[in-house]
Design brief:
The protein is α+β, with helices and mostly antiparallel strands. The chain has 2 domains: 146 residues, 3-Layer(aba) Sandwich (Aminopeptidase), CATH 3.40.630.30; 99 residues, Gcn5-related N-acetyltransferase (GNAT) (Aminopeptidase, 3-Layer(aba) Sandwich), CATH 3.40.630. It has 8 helices and 13 strands. Strands 1, 2, 3, 4, 5, 6, 7, 8, 9, 10, 11, 12 and 13 form a 13-stranded mixed sheet that branches. A hairpin with a 6-residue loop joins strand 3 and strand 4. Helix 1 packs antiparallel against helix 2, helix 2 packs antiparallel against helix 6 and helix 5 crosses helix 6. The longest helix has 18 residues. The chain is globular and about 60 Å long. The mean pLDDT is 95.
Length: 306
């Protein structure tokens, strides 16, 4: 029957995509592709947020390539114009077709032309070669692909009077959302973002969501300071960090590192073998390195304006 490509349809394809990503991970834990946990986060959390703010659902940003009914290639992005490509090992010849499809269907309209943005792991050498041949340029900033193997885990240390609170101990989704949102957006401190709240309510329905991997830090006066969550896939025994956030007035106290270590200990206690994170920029890489994550690869951002 050969290889066909088609649009992603959640009802029939969600579990198939998760299985594809799990298989590729199990074959090579460092394979150049999204982890299953990140795809689930997009489906359950970020897609809900997009819809709440009036944006188009993200499903149009997902496209499949199949051979005899089996997924062998995947184009996916957090939004239109941010494109990631992954193929089953041995199907790298699809990169050329995937690049052409994406340039025609997933570009951003600019004044007087179009802009294409591809996020590509350095390990995807065939794809990098195609982009170079088409005059794409790599931006200076890059994503650091980082891994923790649960070895040499120090005990988390908090300032005197501060303490950990786990998601199983506090199930207030609005509170958890506020802590995380205010950490990323200090200018909105004190304001509830209802789109983020609805997104996190839907995230709680995701198959891999587990409150025991939510970690917060509470100040001596009872105020919540920081929030972290690890998506844990018990089938692959792996975790994916998304997000980690500390409110502005509580920064520089070591709370973020302590939360990471606390979550890593909990993962290890439950048989999880590896944890992953994909920070953007050098200072974020330094932060995760402080908790024992090590960089095993890079992802470049390639752009072309036509």
């Amino acid at each position: 029957m050969g290889i066909i490509d088609r649009k992603y349809q959640k009802e029939q394809d969600y579990n198939r995509v998760i299985s594809f990503l799990r298989r590729e991970y199990e074959a090579d834990p460092r394979f150049p592709g999204w982890k299953a946990q990140r795809f689930e986060d997009m489906e359950y959390r970020l897609n809900t947020m997009y819809v709440c703010v009036g944006s188009a659902p993200w499903h149009d940003c997902v496209h499949l390539w199949e051979e005899d009914g089996t997924i062998v290639g995947l184009c996916v992005g957090e939004r239109k114009g941010e494109n990631f490509f992954y193929v089953k090992k041995g199907y790298e010849f699809l990169y050329s077709q995937m690049t052409d499809w994406t340039k025609h269907n997933m570009c951003e309209e600019e004044v007087g032309g179009k802009k294409h943005t591809f996020w590509v792991c350095d390990a995807q050498r065939e794809l990098v070669g195609i982009l170079r041949s088409q005059q794409f340029e790599r931006l200076p900033d890059e994503v650091h692909l980082m891994e923790h193997t649960m070895t040499d885990l120090p005990e988390p240390m908090l300032p005197e009077g501060f303490g950990f609170v786990y998601g199983t101990e506090n199930q207030d989704i609005v509170l958890k959302t506020n802590i995380s949102h205010w950490g990323f957006n200090p200018d909105q401190e004190g304001i509830e973002n209802t789109a983020c709240t609805e997104a996190n309510k839907n995230r709680a329905r995701a198959p891999m969501f587990d409150e025991q991997y939510e970690v917060m830090v509470q100040a001596p006066d009872g105020e919540m300071c920081s929030y972290a969550f690890f998506w844990v896939d018990t089938e692959t025994k792996s975790a994916f960090v998304e997000p980690v956030s500390t409110r502005e007035k509580y920064r520089k106290l070591g709370l973020g590192k302590a939360m990471l270590l606390a979550a890593l200990h909990r993962c290890k206690e439950n048989g999880i073998l590896r944890a992953y994170v994909e920070p953007y920029g050098q200072w974020r890489e330094n932060f995760y390195s402080s908790a024992g994550f090590k960089t095993y690869g890079k992802m470049g951002i390639w752009t072309l304006s036509e």
